[in-house]
Amino acid sequence: xxxxxxxxxxxxxxxxxxxxxxxxxxxxxxxxxxxxxxxxxxxxxxxxxxxxxxxxxxxxxxxxxxxxxxxxxxxxxxxxxxxxxxxxxxxxxxxxxxxxxxxxxxxxxxxxxxxxxxxxxxxxxxxxxxxxxxxxxxxxxxxxxxxxxxxxxxxxxxxxxxxxxxxxxxxxxxxxxxxxxxxxxxxxxxxxxxxxxxxxxxxxxxxxxxxxxxxxxxxxxxxxxxxxxxxxxxxxxxxxxxxxxxxxxxxxxxxxxxx
Length: 259
Description:
By secondary structure, the chain is mainly α. The chain contains 7 helices and no strands. It has helices spanning 2-96, 106-114, 117-131, 134-139, 142-161, 170-182, 186-258. The protein is rod-shaped, with a radius of gyration of 41 Å.
């Protein structure tokens, strides 16, 4: 009976040890697997955050360029429309000049055409200066355009300040304005109008060239976004594969140690 009791105790202890060993092995495997998934998730998250930050930066830059291009297109349209308006106005007067029914004198007509230019050119120059592209600023002599427009604006303001302020009939008002403008040499008004027309052309050319620069930057950013998206996907895959490889190596060594 004593020997049987000892044998039962020995078998029980052996079973307990074997069960503990098996449970520890299983527990170790599950723990290692859980740690692997946690690390893999963290690594994937860090990688994703890094590339998402880069993508967000590129997309914000692309949005700014889209808004910049909207402004460029606006100035390309406005400068062309005003330039055409001036050309058409000068051409129309040549056709109707000498018509006895013409109520507006030549100087008054060209003076009124000139009035359309300074504000538009001034606003365009402000946007050009905000762009701050030194190469284009020098190439199209923007400072020279700015000074010329400033002088033309001063000349117009000086003459407009001399316009009659009294309550007059339309004919009386027109006569006083015509008398005022008759004192100005037509050549001076014509030269200022031609200069403004030329400056509008230079502004248009400035924005055309700047538009090409913006288009190039947009294309580069779009390529970067595509490449970064691909790199992000590949990096997450390689990080996962690396973790799987490390996990497999660890398990092989543990199995060797346990055996």
